[in-house]
Each structure stands twice: as structure tokens, then as C-alpha cells.
Amino acid sequence: MTKWITIAKHEFAYNVRRKEFLFMTFGLPLFIFALFGLMIFLSASSISPQDFTIGYVDKAGTFEGNFTRYAGEDIAKNDLLEGKITHFFVIPADYRSTGNIEIFSKKSRTQGSIEGEIKAFLLDNLMKGDNKELVERVKNPIKSEYFTLNENGESGKDDISGIIISLAFAAFFMLSIFTSSNFLLQSVIEEKENRVMEILLSSVSHRDLLTGKIFGLGAVGLTQVFIWQVMGIAVLSSGPVALLLKGVSISIPLLIFASGYFILGYLVFACILAGVGAIATTSREGQQIAGIFTMIGAAPLMISQLILSKPDSAISMIFSYFPLTSPITMIMRISTGNVQYYEVVLSLIILTVSILVIIELSVKIFRASLLMYGKKPTISELIKYVR
Amino acid sequence: MEKTVEVTNVSKSFNGQTVVKDISFEIAPGEIFGLIGPNGAGKTTIIRMLLDIIRPDSGEIKILGSAQPEETKDLIGYLPEERGLYRRLTVMDSLLYLGALKNYQSKKRALELLEQMEMLQHKDKKLSELSKGMQQKIQLIAAICHDPELIILDEPFSGLDPVNMKLVKEMIVELGKEGKTILISTHMMDQVERMCSRIFMMHRGSGVLYGSVGEIKSKFGKNTVFLDFEGELKNIHGVKRSNISGNYAELILVDGADTQDVLKAIARDVRVSRFEVSSPSLNEIFIKVVEE
Prior knowledge:
Oligomer: heterodimer
Distance between the termini of chain A: 25 Å
Distance between the termini of chain B: 36 Å
Largest sheet of chain B: 6 strands, mixed
CATH class of the largest domain in chain B: Alpha Beta
Number of helices of chain B: 10
CATH architecture of the largest domain in chain B: 3-Layer(aba) Sandwich
Strand content of chain B: 25-35%
Number of strands of chain B: 13
Order of helices and strands of chain B: EEEHEHEHHHEHEHEEHEEEHEH
Low-confidence stretches of chain B: none
Structural class of chain B: alpha/beta
Mean pLDDT of chain A: 80
């Protein structure tokens, strides 16, 4: 009766020691952090204003400031070519009526921040004599804050936490499925290839074997996600990223729902992938079939706009209950508050029932197609197996 | 007494191709039983059905009196033809895991068997570090480590050198003495001749011969000559077919041929150091049955 637990334990212990697992779990985040760090470093160094030395040629005759002033374009061009300045711009005589400005540089594309500096220079000159406050306002006229009115006419500050949380959940969910689909497929296909399968099946039932694998390898995937989460929180709570997320508040019930949907949704995919592993003859073929299911799983992300704005439309409803899409859809709806209590209960029941049904179907397919090495069953054969 | 294995009218086909055709046989407790036939005869399919890895299309299989495979799986030991173990696990971990799946995990017995098979010093090595023959022995230990009642060995001798072959044979004989029921499936029919009390011979999915080795042999009469010789053996009158390997030959005589005439004819050409009239080997019997 408890043989599937023995198998689950073994699968867990065997797979967390794999090099691929260790690499994915610790190597991948480090690689991503390193990549981000490099990107931030590069972009920061390329836009730093110290790198610019800007000159100008003033044909209108009234502009002054802390840029190098040139009497004519020829001298400015010479200095640009010799590298004394990085940019210069020409203010034509009719600038005040046309707004035309010609900017010269040695590189073909000019960074946006150059224009910002020139703009500030021009504004300072155009508004000479007006008070400093007004100049500041013209330079930066709007600092926005949004409010929404509810039915009682009370206004509340707009909270984007819901959207951020649901998108983070969706991204995390998809990432976990993508990475652990590998483990499941490989493990089933590998045992088919190295023929350990036959020994295992002489000791345990097909159901025990598949259930043990789903839970053991599922636990491997969840462990990986958990480690990533801890690493992520460590990064997010330190340094500049924490500032960005200051406004996000997570409620405890949402966290509980999110965990519940995550685990159940994850198991639905794990069961499907185990079934896919049973019919696939190579891991590449398995990946292809599995891709179809992960695409469906990602569908709510693609139409998240619709789900968030029209939570009671037919598509939102279907997505809320269809087991492959319901975790992401429901978390989106819960986090934005557009959901009834019974809907949550119903979708959780559907998820649980589908796990049991899919295990049952996978076991049948597994039994029927297992030892037909090198031959993939056709759709009609699959239907026959399932009956 | 209750039979250990009862197979009744079992058939199985894959994709419309019949692999096993209406097979029936029984194995009594404590018997060493041979399931023999050439490659592709359907032996492995029968074994997989005995283990409930696949199910028969029709017919009934009872193991130790039960038709419920879940009740008996723990009492069966299985050495599959396609060997397979976790390559990255150590010998000891593999044995303990497979034991746990049979609800019988005994480190003591695993160590005893490793010692008996001269593998004790390798117990902490990974399977991938062992030679093929060594892996083979580990696989055999895994099949019997949980002290099963019924032991099913699919091609137990393939890939073994003579020393290990002897070890494995001794092990099988000893298990038989302990009262275990053993089913040996092999296409190397001569290997099991002396070991098995009874055999079931298959050809293309059907049973062709079934009974005790002695009975079967006596039915085919003494028409075979084992010959050790020096020189060059030519066509001999009265010999239907000959298998010559170096200085040894098996001659199958035509029906009614006189062995003395044959001996005289041979002695004219070569020096004879052994001339033994005997029953045909199982190989020969098989060929004869199939030809008919």
C-alpha cells in the first residue's frame, strides 16, 4: 500500500543529487543575477552625463550656459572630430519661431539623455527672468497619483499590488512547470531506456510507480522553486529593488490561496507530464508534446488584460475552471478582488478531481504503451488504451 | 499440492500480431523449470504476463494460488533479460531500494549474497563503475535478495564468463535445494538440460514440447553420437546431419542406422578417441520438432 511513498522518497533523493538539478537550482539564478548586474553596470556607465561634453553654436545670439560656446560650426566640427567634445548643437536664428535644433555627434545614434540636457539648457535660457519655481514646473509639470472611486463614493489610492502579485505568481508558476517538466519526462523516459522499469514493475503496480514518481519528482521541482524563492527574497529585500516593491502588500489569505493553487496546479501538470513520458520514445519528443500543455498553461498570461478587466466574461469563466489554466486565472482574479467565494471552492475541487482522473488515465496509457520500446502509439490507440 | 505457477490457455497479441498462442503449463513447488525456445518465441512475453507487467488478452494466470498480482509480487524474484539498474547508485543502495519495494529490506542478507557471489569488496561502488559481468551478478542478487518463493530468471547466463557462469549455476542449484521454485527462460537450451527437471519448449508463440527432460529425450530415442576425433571428417553413410566444432562432433543418425557401421566408417578416416551413443540434445530435439 505504501510502496509509492518508498518510490517517491527514492526519486527525490536520487534526483536532487543530479548535476543538472544542482546546476539549474544554484547556477541558473547566479547566472541571471550576473547578467542583470552586467546589464545595469553597462547601461549605467553608458548614460552617465560625465561622458558628454556638449558644445553649441548660437546663431540666435541670446543663449548662454555651462556648455562650450563656439563662434561657428567649422570650429565646433573640428573639436568634435578631434574628440574634445562629444556633441554640439546649432541654434538657428529663427529658433524661437520654429523650435529647430540641429544636433551633431560622431556616433550615429544619440542617446535620449542628450536631448534632455539640451532641453534643460534651452528652457533655462527661454525662461530667463521667470522665477525658479516656474522653471522647475515647466521642466517637470506632472507627478501623478491615481485614485479610484468605489460605489460608495469613497476614494482609495490605486493599489497595483494585486497585478504585481498575480503576474509574479504566473511567472513563477510557468517557470516551475517548464523546469520540472524536464525532470519528470527524463525520469520516466530514462527508466524506460535503461530498463529499470521492468524490475520496478515486477515489484510494484503501475499506479504505485507513477504516483510515486509524480510526488517524488514534484517534490524535487517544488524544492527547486523554494530555493529560488529564498534566493529571490534575499535579493529583493536588499538594495535598490526593495524600493520598487515598497508599495506591494501581500495579504495572508492570498498567500494561502496562492500556495494551494500553486501545488494543485503543479500536480496537474506533473501528472500530465508523467503520462507524456509514458508514451514518448525520446526525451526530445516528450518535450514537444509537453510544450503543447505548457502553452495552454501560459494562455491566461497572454489574455491577462481581459481577465483583469472583464472577470465575468465567458473566456474568463472557462479559464477559471479549466484545470490547466485555473491556477493563474484564479490568482489574478483573487488578487484584484473580482471573485466569489464559491468560485474559489469550485475551482479547487475541479483541480483536485482532475489530478485523480489524470493519474488514472496516465496509469492506463502507461500500462498499455510501456514496453512497446521505440514505438509511439497513435491517437486512436491511445483512446483504446484509455477505455 | 497447490501449484506455484498455473498458466491456462493464455494468449497475447501486439498490434494484431499474435505473440503467445493458447499456452498452458504448470510449475510445481520446488521445481526448477525450463522455459526454452529460440529468440522471439514469446518467452519474455509470458514472463512479463506472469509478473503482471502486461496482461494477457485471454486465459488465466495464477501465482502461488492467487490470481491477484498485487498479493504475490513481493514473493517473486525477477531477473529480466534486458538488464537495468540505476547507474549512479551504489551496489548496496540499489539492493536496499529494490528490497524495500518488495517489503523486505535486509542488509544482512544482501551482504551474505554479495560475499557468496564474490562481490563484497564492490558493495560501495556505483553500478557504472562495475564491469558488465559484475552488474549481471548484482542484478541476480537483487532478484533473490528478498528471499522470494518463486524466482524467474530470463536468460541468466548471457554475457557471463565461464567462472561466473559456474557461480551462477551453483547459486541456482542451491536455491533449488532450499526448496525455491525456479523458472529459467533461455534460448541456450543445452545450458538448462542438466539443471531443469521439466521444460516447456516454445516456437513462434506456441508450446511444442512439455514434460520432464528425461521423458522427452527418451521419446526421441538414442540416435545421436558424440565424437572426439583427430583428422578430417568426411561424409559418412548413415549420418543425417553433423555439427562439427574442431575435434568434437555431434552426429545425428538416420532412423534405423546401425551405430557399429557408422563407427567403422568413421574409423577408416580419422582417429577416434571417444564414441558415445546418446539421446539427442534439446537443441537437436527442438530442430527436429520444428522441422516436422
